[in-house]
Every structure is written in structure tokens, then in C-alpha cells.
């Protein structure tokens, strides 16, 4: 029972982390129909910022990391994706792949191929005992932080004027523009929010590993993107649920598969993905709608 409780908390924590990544990807997809593979490089950039500024103090370092994440995301939109809005989703996807590989090479040129390390918030790596369960502090912080951010994003999307514009644009961009929604502002805002979420993910991952390399954010982004697809990437809630399920399943398979086959965890995760897509090809919570990006 104790082992199950610990596994459940770990699964909730990893699911929450994947959900944040999928949420950032899903928000951008909603208004641009762009599955931004370069989201992983935003996570990497924000993580490098933490590593190199942690000696300045936690407050300064976290602020710089958040700023780097937001600025990187907005620059992607301004310098690359804004010029490609009239192209097909396939072209946007290829551009995001190219941007991802370009930024990886830039990180290698600037920081080298070896990982950079720093004791970022090392106190969160400890454990606490709750109801007889020995739990990682970072897992509890991740769950709490994700809950707060999800409530904040929900409030923004449902209770603010800008948030309602984002929701309208993600539902039907053409009609939203006819009703006065400014495309440039909405898209830039969405990229900025996704960059902020990426910085939060970078913080959690950097505390967890203490080391950052040029491809730091790629594995997490790939799996979260798959999760967003199985949840229904054309709806924010679908991306969120799919990302959470991806992380939850990955953690549970790690804990409960027999020792001899646990190394095949990812194979079992993707088998589950295939089964879901066979039943629901468009995703568990997929919606419908059209988009215009000009």
C-alpha cells in the first residue's frame, strides 16, 4: 500500500509536468494550428538561464529564466512563424523542426556539448513523511505549482478580455477577426504564455536533474506533444488531459512493470498511444473548427 501511494504521487507529479508542456503546445496550436516542436528549446533556454544565474539568488534567477522563456517564445513568433502564417500546417511544423535543430546547434556553440550543472533549489530534492509515506518535496511542489498555474490559466481564459479573445481565436480565428480580435496581439500573447509555462517546466526539470545540455527539453516535449495529440490537440483541455495521461502512464509503467522488462517502458507507453488512436483517431477530446492566421 505504501509503495502504491508513493507511485501514485510520483505519477501525479510527472503527469502534471507533462500537462504543463502539453498546455503550452496546445495554446499555440489553438490559434496558429502549429504543433511547435521548438517548444523544447524554450525549455532548454530557460533552464540554461537558471544554471548560469543561480548564484545571483533564487528570485533573480527565476525571474531571468521566466524572462528568457517568454522572450524566446515571442522571438520565435516574430522572426519565424509570423512570416509563415499563410502557409500550410505542414510547412509550419517543418519550420518548427528546423528551428529546433538550429537552436540546439546555437546552444552547443554557446555553451558546449557537455552538460552544465548548478545546485538549483537543491533543498527541494529532499523528502518528507506524510501519513507514513516518504515523498519527494519536488513532487509535491510540482503538483501544487501545476494546480495553481492551471487555475490561473483557466481564470485568464474565462474571466479576462484578452483571455476571451484567445478562446475565440482558438475556436474560429476567421470569425474572431471579423469581430475585432487583433490577430498579432492574440498570437503574441499566446506565445508569451507558452514561454512562461516552459520556464516553469525548466525550473522543475533543472531542480530534478541539476544538469542542462543542448537537447535538455527535447525528450519531454516529444512525449508531451504525443500526449497532446492523443488528448485532442485542437482543444486546450484535450492537450492538457493527454499530456497528463502520458506522464501518468510513463511513471506507473516505471514503477509496476517487472524488473526484466521495465527498460521497455516507452514501448508500452506508445502501445497505449496506438490503442487510443485506433479507437479515437482525432484524440480523446478532439473538437472541430477552422483557423485563419493572417
From TrEMBL:
<protein>
    <submittedName>
        <fullName>Branched-chain amino acid ABC transporter permease</fullName>
    </submittedName>
</protein>
<feature type="transmembrane region" description="Helical">
    <location>
        <begin position="88"/>
        <end position="107"/>
    </location>
</feature>
<keyword id="KW-1133">Transmembrane helix</keyword>
<dbReference type="InterPro" id="IPR001851">
    <property type="entry name" value="ABC_transp_permease"/>
</dbReference>
<feature type="transmembrane region" description="Helical">
    <location>
        <begin position="237"/>
        <end position="256"/>
    </location>
</feature>
<feature type="transmembrane region" description="Helical">
    <location>
        <begin position="268"/>
        <end position="287"/>
    </location>
</feature>
<feature type="transmembrane region" description="Helical">
    <location>
        <begin position="62"/>
        <end position="81"/>
    </location>
</feature>
<feature type="transmembrane region" description="Helical">
    <location>
        <begin position="211"/>
        <end position="230"/>
    </location>
</feature>
<dbReference type="Pfam" id="PF02653">
    <property type="entry name" value="BPD_transp_2"/>
</dbReference>
<comment type="similarity">
    <text>Belongs to the binding-protein-dependent transport system permease family. LivHM subfamily.</text>
</comment>
<keyword id="KW-0813">Transport</keyword>
<feature type="transmembrane region" description="Helical">
    <location>
        <begin position="12"/>
        <end position="31"/>
    </location>
</feature>
<keyword id="KW-0029">Amino-acid transport</keyword>
<keyword id="KW-0812">Transmembrane</keyword>
<feature type="transmembrane region" description="Helical">
    <location>
        <begin position="137"/>
        <end position="157"/>
    </location>
</feature>
<dbReference type="InterPro" id="IPR052157">
    <property type="entry name" value="BCAA_transport_permease"/>
</dbReference>
<feature type="transmembrane region" description="Helical">
    <location>
        <begin position="186"/>
        <end position="205"/>
    </location>
</feature>
<keyword id="KW-1003">Cell membrane</keyword>
<keyword id="KW-0472">Membrane</keyword>
Amino acid at each position: 500500500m505504501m509503495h502504491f501511494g508513493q507511485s501514485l504521487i510520483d505519477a501525479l507529479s510527472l503527469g502534471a509536468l507533462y500537462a504543463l508542456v502539453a498546455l503550452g503546445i496546445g495554446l499555440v496550436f489553438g490559434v496558429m494550428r502549429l504543433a511547435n516542436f521548438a517548444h523544447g528549446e524554450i525549455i532548454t533556454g530557460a533552464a540554461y538561464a537558471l544554471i548560469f544565474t543561480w548564484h545571483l539568488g533564487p528570485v533573480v534567477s527565476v525571474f531571468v529564466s521566466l524572462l528568457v522563456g517568454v522572450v524566446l517564445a515571442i522571438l520565435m513568433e516574430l522572426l519565424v512563424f509570423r512570416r509563415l502564417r499563410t502557409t500550410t500546417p505542414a510547412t509550419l511544423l517543418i519550420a518548427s523542426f528546423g528551428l529546433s535543430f538550429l537552436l540546439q546547434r546555437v546552444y552547443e556553440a554557446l555553451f558546449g556539448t557537455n552538460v552544465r550543472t548548478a545546485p538549483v533549489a537543491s533543498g527541494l530534492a529532499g523528502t518528507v513523511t506524510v501519513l507514513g509515506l516518504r515523498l519527494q518535496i519536488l513532487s509535491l511542489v510540482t503538483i501544487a505549482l501545476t494546480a495553481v498555474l492551471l487555475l490561473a490559466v483557466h481564470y485568464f481564459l474565462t474571466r479576462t478580455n484578452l483571455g476571451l479573445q484567445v478562446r475565440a481565436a482558438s475556436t474560429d480565428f476567421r470569425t474572431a477577426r471579423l469581430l475585432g480580435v487583433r490577430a498579432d496581439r492574440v498570437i503574441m500573447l499566446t506565445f508569451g504564455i507558452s514561454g512562461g509555462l516552459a520556464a516553469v517546466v525548466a525550473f522543475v526539470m533543472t531542480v530534478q536533474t541539476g544538469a542542462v545540455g543542448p537537447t535538455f527539453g527535447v525528450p519531454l516535449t516529444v512525449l508531451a506533444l504525443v500526449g497532446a495529440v492523443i488528448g485532442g490537440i485542437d482543444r486546450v483541455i484535450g492537450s492538457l488531459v493527454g499530456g497528463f495521461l502520458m506522464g501518468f502512464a510513463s511513471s506507473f509503467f516505471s514503477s509496476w512493470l517487472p524488473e526484466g522488462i521495465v527498460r521497455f517502458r516507452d514501448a508500452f507507453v506508445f502501445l497505449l498511444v496506438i490503442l487510443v488512436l485506433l479507437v479515437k483517431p482525432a484524440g480523446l477530446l478532439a473538437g472541430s473548427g477552422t483557423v485563419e492566421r493572417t
